[in-house]
Amino acid sequence: MWNGLRRVSSKQKKKNTLWSKVKRERITYLREKFGYLPCEYCKANVTEPDAHHIDGNRNHNIDTNIYITDRLCHSFIEDNNLKVTQEDFQGYRGE
Ligand SMILES: [Zn+2]
User: What is the pTM of this model?
Assistant: First the structure.
């Protein structure tokens, strides 16, 4: 019966925690590989990283589905429904 209360289910909490863990690991991997944290879209140094779901499925929280971007690139990718792959640096314009 509906009791009027709404809270985040423990199942949802578990998913959020898992995604945070995948995000942390991806950030560590990129930092070690490049010596700084690049946005995977534009290659710029990211200070507040966002984690994009590559296949658009927010329940698909695995390491091959994560793409680290800055805020602007994340909105751009979402707004334009862009297909991205890890470290593709599609928005990179060169030096
Ligand atoms: Zn970017």
Answer: 0.86
